[in-house]
Amino acid sequence: MNPVDRWADFLIGAALNREKKNIVWNMVGSFCYAFASMVLSFLVMRIVGEDEGGIFAFGYSTFGQQMFIVAYFGLRPFQITDGKGEYRFGDYLLHRILTCAAALLAGAGFLLLNGYSAKKASVIFLLVCYKVIDGFADVYESEFQRNGHLHLTGKSNTFRTLLSVTVFLTVLTAGRSLLTACAAAVAAQAAGVLFFDAAVIRRLPSVDPGRSAARLWPLTRAAVLLFLSVFLDFYIFSAAKYAIDAHMDDAASGYFNVIFMPTSVINLAAGFVIRPVLTYLTDYWMEGNYRAFRQMLVRISALIGGLSVLAVGLAWGIGRPVLGIMETLLGDAYAGSLVRYHMPFVLVVLGGGFYAVLNLYYYVLVILRRQDVIFGIYAVMTAAAAILAPEMVRKGGIRGAAWAYLILMVVMAAGFVGGAVNRMAAGEKAARLGQERKTE
Fold first, then answer.
1. Exposure b/e, 313-326, CB count within 10 A at least 16 = b
2. pTM > 0.85
3. Chain centre to alpha carbon of residue 107
4. Model confidence band, residue 374 (pLDDT cutoffs 50, 70, 90)
5. End-to-end alpha-carbon separation of the chain, Å?
6. Cα–Cα distance between 162 and 145 in angstroms, integer?
7. What percent helix, strand, coil does the chain show, rounded to 5?
């Protein structure tokens, strides 16, 4: 056995206690990924200043993430719920190669047309490359989960994140060059995909690498509404950040990203709850076990709601001292720069709770294969976000951005919950009528 195969077998591990490993590694991987997303902009501000920190924050967590979604094409929930094997892994992989190429072209085009300085555009493009590689890794991680190896998804998330973030921070600290550090992070991210994804999936006998170009169009057609929906979802989620980039300075982007950090914690906690049960919810619905489906959905909703209430309470009660500590960690130059945003901080945390709820019901609609409902909600909310966020940022700055985010999340959550409940009722009714016709 060659060294690559031995390494892959080591990562796969024994089949014993796989369910436990799936839960544990999913938690570890989700935590590492969310923690990195949460603190990287903060650390960049600390190391190279508020302006470059703001550029990094916009490139990494906003525009770069938007291009990740182009690469990702909304296919993860479709792929992991493809229990019947309608498409092979090779089909998904070929499709992902093409969407990643499209993401790179779209990112370059946006930056060429947007009038940024050469340095800012170069940094943001490297961050686009970093995120697109992350989107490429997702096709492997989705296949791991589809085949019951969620622990491999968690390991990939964990080790790729640790590798690329360590390289990035080491190079940034040593040379104080954001451009060089971003280039090093891209190289580390590519190496992570090779070592923790591509090398491993070859050792899973249940994975079918076969592919056919003829399957590209049917797969695209099946997922296009999901892609458009996820793309629009992230635009709505980030509309306040885009408005700040357009109407305020780079430093404001950095500050808003700092007070936005708790949303990563809320989404992380929600992911711990949602991801492991998606296959169960899918099975319950496909089997017609609607009672079990509803019971699990109610339990998950209550848990996410409880976590959100706790997060808002903590943000209100101890938000000021926490923001004060963050100012101290950033350095003397940042004294008083964050505490003044305590109320926007609370509003953003509350909005994050509503976003976690709508995420759950988004997956419910995916399981029900109601992409039309998902897209309809996002289309309406995109128009609202494009008007509301810039207007509120122009009038209220960062506080206006926080209010815009909260309003958008509340309205969108209401749409998803209402849409999912309505379609569930319609699906159950249709199933009952079909059963009655069979028995007549």
1. eebeeebeebbeeb
2. no
3. 18
4. confident
5. 61
6. 21
7. 90, 0, 10
